[in-house]
């Protein structure tokens, strides 16, 4: 009986920690625009990401209806970086602005020397980190 009571107390103390670790972070949905630097045309799309403990995971889809692409990255404070496998793979270094939007520059993954300008306007996003 005492052991059962002790286990109930211990498990009750651990329950909030377990719930906090398994509850998914809010989803951020952005309308994006990626364009080659020094050019006016680009690629519109939708970015859906989750940020948990500084790790970023999600998906990207071009507005033209292309395939759903995995997104991986990280964040620290207002800095964010994303690897998007679309367009042959693009690595984005950006900043989360006070309005929740993301602005940054990108470069292809690999030897190509292009540079991209990246913007993402929040569709439904919680406030940016403090």
Report strand order across the widest sheet: 1-2-3-4-5-6-7-8
How much helix, percentage-wise, in residues?
10-25%
Name the shape in a single word: globular
Q: How many domains, in number, for the residues?
A: 1
Describe the protein.
The protein is an alpha+beta fold and 130 residues long. The chain has a single domain, classed as Porin (Beta Barrel). It is built from 1 helix and 8 strands, in the order αββββββββ. Strands 1-2-3-4-5-6-7-8 form an 8-stranded antiparallel beta barrel. The longest helix is centred in the N-terminal third of the chain and has 21 residues, at 2-22. The radius of gyration is 19 Å and the shape is globular. Residues 1-21 have low confidence and may be disordered.
Give a quick set of tags describing it:
130 residues, alpha+beta, Porin, eight-stranded antiparallel β-barrel, 50% strand, globular, disordered N terminus
Please provide a brief summary of the model.
The chain is α+β, with helices and mostly antiparallel strands and 130 residues long. It has one helix at residues 2-22; strands spanning 27-36, 43-52, 55-62, 69-76, 79-84, 90-96, 102-108, 116-124.
Walk me through the topology.
Layout: H1 2-22, E1 27-36, E2 43-52, E3 55-62, E4 69-76, E5 79-84, E6 90-96, E7 102-108, E8 116-124
Antiparallel strand pairs: 1-2, 1-8, 2-3, 3-4, 4-5, 5-6, 6-7, 7-8
């Amino acid at each position: 009986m005492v052991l059962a009571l002790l286990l109930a107390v211990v498990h009750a103390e651990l329950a909030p920690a377990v719930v906090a670790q398994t509850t998914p972070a809010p989803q951020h949905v952005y309308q994006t625009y990626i364009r080659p630097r020094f050019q006016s045309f680009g690629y519109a799309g939708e970015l859906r990401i989750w940020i948990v403990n500084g790790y970023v995971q999600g998906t990207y889809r071009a507005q033209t209806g292309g395939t759903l692409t995995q997104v991986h990255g990280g964040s620290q404070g207002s800095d964010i970086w994303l690897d998007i496998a679309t367009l042959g793979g693009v690595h984005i270094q950006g900043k989360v602005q006070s309005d929740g939007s993301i602005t940054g520059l990108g470069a292809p993954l690999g030897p190509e020397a292009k540079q991209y300008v990246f913007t993402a306007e929040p569709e439904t996003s919680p406030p940016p980190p403090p």
